[in-house]
Every structure is written in structure tokens, then in C-alpha cells.
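Weekly structure sync, notes
Attendees: PL, DS, HV (note-taker this week)

Item 1: DUF2125 domain-containing protein
DS walked through the input record. Source organism listed as Pararhodobacter aggregans. Sequence as pasted into the shared doc:
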Amino acid sequence: MALCLAAIQPGAAFALTAPEAWANLQSMAAGAGLTMTSTGTTGTDASVTVSGLRIFPTANPNDLIISMDTLRVEPQGEMIALAPSAQVDLAILFAGGLTRHFTVTHDGTITGNLTETNAALDLDFPNLSLVQVPGSVTLPGGKGGSVTDPLSVSMQFQALDASLRAAREGAAEISLQAASVAYDLTYPDPGTEGVTISQAGSITAPAIRFTGTELDTLSDDEGAIRRAFDSGFSASLEFTSGASAQTSRQMIEGVEVAMQTQGGASQLRLDAADGRVDITGDAEGVSMSGRYGQLPGSVTLGGMDMAFGFPLVATPDDQPLRYMISFRDLAPSAELLAMVGAGQFAGEPVTLTVDLGAQGRLTQEIGPDFGESDAPPVDVSSVSLNDLRLQVGDSALTGSGAVALIGGLMGQIGQARPNADGRFLFDLVGGERLLTRLQGMGLVPQDQLFFVRMMMNGLSRPVGDDHLQSEVVLQPGGAITVNGAPLPF
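Item 1 (cont.): predicted structure, written out as C-alpha cells:
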């Protein structure tokens, strides 16, 4: 990417001829520690074609070698276009001294522009593939002999394009997307020597987008986060994709495990601004099926959502905190449930949602000494249970409420019970029905069922058919009541 941008030295791009652009590219490559060799150049001021081009690190020439038959360099207005030959060969030195060879085939171009204040880079590849050349592993020192390569790579991109815009004052905008990506990979299992994992699949409409301001204020120095936000730093990073499918195979303790996965659209977004970070994500339905040896099984998930948010700098005032995660309609197959004696629950999905909020603040700046003082690094003045749901079939536990911590979190230190003011309401529908089913299947010992029923009856009141309710009230001074009665323990 740096070489593409460096095709133009600072100045007006339209004033460069093609030979000047090629000369500048060579100069910048040398400054970056790269050597570019060729067998010759032909062309005019409008376009230059470089033949027999090889690019490699000057200090370690065998680490990476990029080879192509031709490279066309052509000024286009304020941009310079680079068109590599339809096939580009890569030789990459991996750990252990093995050199692997890859072939890139494409029908695209790269355009770029670099001035004293701005940089631009565009990639446009209607078709692009990266394939490892079979049987092309070179042993250390160029020795002869055969070696079994545990790595195999094949990737195809359709309608791949990218855009980068950057400004000297620290602003940047980057996007990378494709209509589809297909892959077929085999690689070593990091947990078991001599075992490989094979994966093949496809993803539709994958995309990455990034925007940022005042990026030049970031550093590893102590207090850099505070200074960056004070200077106006902000950043957003988003990953999105459409439907996907994958098959995988691997050996686990001598048993073959085969999996097939299909998923819907998904999104993950991170926003950092105004001294805090917020993360949100969601995914549509996912289905997984496969076998462990001869044992089949499958799981479906209706969807999931998540949201997290917290401050990154110390402030005198409270900031919102958030923790939310939700799994909707998780349904293991009858075969998997039968393994734990719960086959009767087949077809009854499970939903779990936990949504917590709070008002709090950092009392210390994030850095090497964060959390090492006697005082807590985070103070919380209030907590809210926005939503709690645990549902199995037609049985469900739900809850919500909020509480203010008098004196904040630090004010609770040394207290036997929280000094707080708040209320929570919990409802259990179908709880007895669920316990009866568990008892009939023998999944829970009788003594544990007795204890659960005792707690349910002691901490709740009936408000309907198999419907229990608990109102928990926290009062200033440490008093806690359940349905109006003092907490029994």
C-alpha cells in the first residue's frame, strides 16, 4: 500500500509523466528498504510498462519475493494507476525456514495519489484469487528432498474494491468490501502437533469500514488516551457481512469431527468518541450440524445481539455504562439433548437475555498503574437491570429494576449490606412445570429439587397459575425486603 501511494512524490500529481512516476516509485521503495529489479521498461510520457519486475526486502531478500511479468504505470488526472500483470507470484519465508509459493490472478488496477497533505488509494479488482502452489515448499537452504506441507490456501474474491483517504492532520477513511469471498484452507491445529484443520466456505458482501480523526495524537505514552480525546480524537470501525456457509473437518483425539455451518447477515461496530467506547453487534440465525465420529448432532440459533459501553477517561461526572447480550431461540437437536438425558426438551428453544446499565465513572486514568491503588478505579452510583430473560420452552424467568447506590460503589466498602435505594421485580412463569419435568427425567437430584422449591416458595408469592413473583426492595441503611418481608437470611 505504501508503495502504491508513493508512486507520486509531494506535488501536483497531474504534472508527472509516467517515467517520472516510475522513478519516484523506485526511489520510495529504496527508502522503505525494498529493492525493485526489472528486465526493462518501454513506453511514453502517458504510460510506461515495466517488464520482469521483482520486489524484495533489501536486507533479507528471501523473506518475500514478489514477481510479475509486467507492471503498467499510467498517470490518470491527479492519480497514478498501476496495473500489474494478470498473474503475480509470491514467495514467502515462513517460520521453520520453509518457503511457500502463491499465485495471485486478477483483472484489476491500483490507483493512488500522495501529496504533502493528503493520500489516496483505490483498489478495483472485479476478480482476484490467491492460491498456494501445490508441492512448492522449499526446504531451508534450498536443500532438495520432499516435505509434506500442512498448509494449503485457496481464496477467491468477486468485485473486491477498497478506498483509503488520509490527511496529514490525522484524519482517515478506509473501506474494503467484496461481493463475495470463497475459501478452501488447510492449516496445522495449534493445539495438536501433526494434526490439520480443513475449512471451506463462502461469505457474501463482507465489508470493513473505518473512519477516524486526530489519529496522530495516539501513542503508547502514559496519559495518551486522555490527551487524544482532549484533542478531538474519534474513531469508528464496522464489520458487516451477508449470508455465509462453511464446512470443516479435523481430528480430535483420533476421532474425526465434521461440521457444517450456515449463518445470516451480521454486523459489529465500535465507536470511540467523547472519552468513551461503545460496541454493538447483531447476527441473524445460525445453524450448525455435524458429527463426532458416528454421533450426529445439530444446533440452531435464531439470532443474537450485544451492546457494551464504558468510559475510557476519568471524569468528575457519571457516564453511562452498558452490558447487554442476548441469544434467541437456541435449540440443540434431539441427539445432543439425549446425551444428557434431556431428549424431552427437543424442539423447545432457549432464550437468554441480560441487559445491564449503570451510571459510573473512572476515578483513575487508564495506564500502567490502573487499578493498583487502594481506591477502586471505577465508581458506580446506580445500576439498572433493563431486561433479564431466561426462557426454556414455555417456562420463563424475567426481571427488571434499578437501584441507586448511596455514596456510590466506594460508599459500600465495609458495609454488611448495600446502602441503596431501589426496586427489582422478578416473574417466574412455568417454574413448577419445568421442575416436574426435570424430576421426571432424573436430571436433578431430589435433594437439590427440594432446596430449589423451598427457595422459590420462600422468596416469591403466587400471582397466577404456575406464576410466581418477587419484589425486591433495597432501602437506605441496608434494609432489604422481598414482597414486603425482611430478607430471611
